[in-house]
Design goal:
Layout: E1 8-12, H1 17-28, E2 32-37, H2 40-53, E3 57-61, H3 67-81, E4 86-89, H4 105-133, E5 137-142, H5 155-174, E6 180-186, H6 194-206, H7 237-250, E7 254-256, H8 262-274, H9 283-288, H10 290-293
Parallel strand pairs: 1-2, 1-4, 2-3, 4-5, 5-6, 6-7
Bound molecules: nicotinamide-adenine-dinucleotide.
The site of nicotinamide-adenine-dinucleotide has 31 residues, from helix 1, helix 4 and helix 6.
């Protein structure tokens, strides 16, 4: 989707961190931005930042795992700005750690509700609206580098983010022949509020009192008040926003952020390739089962490699 000016972006988890970075980058492209988030206090700060900059914005309180509320939020977005063109399924939480057999059932349910069902709800609610208006559009979902190289100790997170990657490959296939694109965003480390917001969301969805709020972070997470940057190894969410908007404009299937993960992913890919049996492939197989042996979505990402910083 090359021309974004005057179009509308609906960004979940858009009040903070990476989502806010994407929201700001969308506004800089001249888009109307809907920030849908579960934390009203973060929405208020983000909306204030947008108003200071004169960027068109609508803040909506939404739990992405609530299907009925999602439909109402999409209706409210359309009432404010008209057609939605860009959906960014970015809301997500850090999940309970440890091996999968030790995770409590309630933590599994919450992680899947937010990180996976929330993404599916976005697709089910908003993609038919984008296809119906016919003006073109794009869907991005924030998975993680954990979908490419699993992170030790983060079993449930790895599971949900791998699932998001699977969702986006499937969506890209389902959208072939339409003027709507799909990107799986697999970021590495960014300076965000993920720890605090995950505590809030998990407590709220468990029916528990939320943990005491941490000292209020600035709405602009790139501001120097953010002390924890691990010696410059973690990046500003503005960087994520720029990368996502570039991927949307180019129609990239994968939007990646860190060259540092390339070697680890090569090892992943090589392990898969080594597992194929050493036998001669039957040439009739591909001709008979054309939908099983190949998928054209993997040949669509042409403008690679992604630009470095
Ligand atoms: N920070 C990183 O290094 C990193 C790396 C890879 C992937 N991610 C992913 O990026 C996404 C954004 O996280 P972030 O790191 O910017 O953290 P963040 O806490 O700064 O932002 C996440 C936002 O999502 C909102 N949210 C959470 N659950 C929600 C729900 N059920 N409904 C609506 N809003 C909800 C939170 O309130 C919060 O404002 C997440 O999906 C996360 O898994 C983050």
């Amino acid at each position: 989707m090359e021309n974004l000016k005057g179009k509308t972006a609906f960004i979940t988890g858009g009040a903070s961190g990476i989502g806010l970075g994407i929201a700001k980058a969308s506004a800089k492209e001249g888009m109307n931005v809907v920030i849908a988030d579960m934390r009203q206090s973060a929405i208020d700060e983000a909306v204030a930042l947008f108003k200071e900059n004169g960027w068109p914005v609508l803040g909506l309180e939404l739990n992405v795992s609530d299907r009925a509320a999602y439909v109402k939020a999409a209706d409210a977005a359309e009432a404010a700005f008209g057609n939605i063109h860009l959906l960014v399924n970015n809301a997500g939480i850090g999940c309970a750690g440890g091996p999968l057999w030790a995770v409590e059932d309630k933590d599994t349910d919450i992680a899947i509700s937010v990180n996976l069902i929330g993404v599916l709800n976005g697709i089910k609610t908003i993609v038919p609206r984008i296809i119906a208006h016919g003006e073109g559009g794009h869907i991005v979902s924030t998975a993680s580098k954990a979908a490419l190289i699993p992170v030790p100790g983060c079993g449930l997170y790895n599971v949900t983010k791998s699932a998001v990657l699977g969702v986006m490959l499937t969506l890209a296939m389902d959208l072939v022949g339409t003027n709507v694109g799909a990107s799986a965003f697999c970021p590495g480390g960014y300076i965000t509020n993920l720890g605090a917001s995950s505590g809030f969301v998990t407590a709220a969805m468990s029916g528990e009192a939320p943990p005491p709020p941490p000292p209020a972070p600035p709405a602009d997470a790139a501001a120097p008040a953010f002390a924890m940057d691990w010696d410059g190894l973690l990046r500003s969410p503005d960087d994520a926003g720029e990368r996502v908007l570039r991927g949307v404009k180019r129609g990239d299937l994968y939007i990646l952020t860190h060259a540092e993960f390339k070697e680890g992913y090569e090892e992943h890919a090589q392990a898969v390739l080594r597992a194929f049996p050493e036998e001669v492939a039957n040439p009739r197989y591909g001709a008979t089962f054309t939908n099983l042996t190949r998928n054209d979505i993997f040949n669509e990402q042409k403008q690679v490699p992604a630009l470095g910083k």
